[in-house]
Amino acid sequence: LAQEDDLWSVPTGPNRSIRWQPARLRPPCAAMSEGQGLLNGDLDSARKVKPCHWQGILHKGAGQYEEQGFEDFTPEEQKLWEEGKLTRKIAIGQVSIRLPVQSTIHLLALSYGYLPFIIPIWWAIWALEGCIVHGKARFFPLFGLCIAGGFALINETVTKQICKRTLSASITDRPPEAVCRHPGMPSGHVMNAYTLMVWCLLEACLNKWVHFEWVLIILVVMGPVPWARVYNKDHTVAQVAVSATCAVFMGAIAYYIRKTHFPGHGQPWDWYSVNQGVENPYAPKFL
After folding, report:
1. Quick one: 171 exposed, middle or buried, by C-beta within 10 A (0-12, 13-18, 19+)?
2. How far, in Å, CA of 206 to CA of 189, rounded?
3. What is the pLDDT averaged over residues 221-234?
4. What is the pTM (predicted TM-score) of this model?
5. What pLDDT was estimated at residue 7?
């Protein structure tokens, strides 16, 4: 095989060759595999090219933006590829995406995998909107951004490093189907989502007026994240369980800091609610 500009040349005999242009986004190794199939006269092999590893950012196994090669598929996944039920495995933001998406449940799990990113982005837009419209950012989304960023930083730089050095690989390793190969204990996605969920639940449930529609929204939006990470085979049950447990304490700490150091700020249910809510006689009072 020889490459000239964007064309690949396959020799077919003395002074003869076939020149063609493979898909531009296909990695060179895939083009080589396709060319080898043409060289052997196997058109089916030329059309069905095994996925090759492709790295967008960081290193192989980081799972931030990469495609996994066929050689890293599990035996079950290689069989699915042979049957045409799995064509590619990519990872974006440490969420493994298997194409084609097989079911609505799978699509739902993928969507929940990105909730820990979507919520802070929404809050950032909300805070920016406050700056533009009211001259200053609303406190609630701004504080939420601080929680998400601060605890994520602690998790990545401290908690995960301690777990990696003190726990066995059988506990920290992700499932073999995951594209990301970084240690999975604890789960950053679950830790982030459940810290924010517990904080928001405490804010909503321990308020003077409880708006149950907001409690339901919080639970529906953030509650299934651990299930999604396990269903998508990016984490084990133990990893998400430990992460969710730790997040309960972190969410409670965030609530305590907000109530004791930054009292008197408005909350979403003060601005957007269907009714006045139900009075809570047990709402705690902080000095």
Report:
1. middle
2. 26
3. 96
4. 0.81
5. 52
Transcribe 25-59 into DSSP letters. Answer: TS-HHHHHHHHHHHHTT-HHHHHSPPP--EE-SSS
CA distance 246 to 191: 7
CA distance 174 to 167: 13
Alpha helices in the chain, H assignment, sequence order: 28-39, 43-47, 75-82, 104-113, 115-134, 139-154, 160-166, 169-172, 188-205, 212-222, 225-231, 237-261, 268-271
Give tens-digit pLDDT for 143-176.
999 999 998 898 888 888 899 899 999 999 999 9
Q: What is the CA radius of gyration of the chain?
A: 25
Give yes or no for a cis peptide into 116 (omega within 30° of 0). Answer: no
Burial class (CB in 10 A: 0-12, 13-18, 19+), 152: middle
Backbone CA torsion sign across 230, 234, 238, 239: negative
Residue 161, token pair as written in the block: 């490093």
C-alpha 262/C-alpha 129 separation (Å) is 21
Handedness of CA 52, 62, 233, 115 (dihedral sign): negative
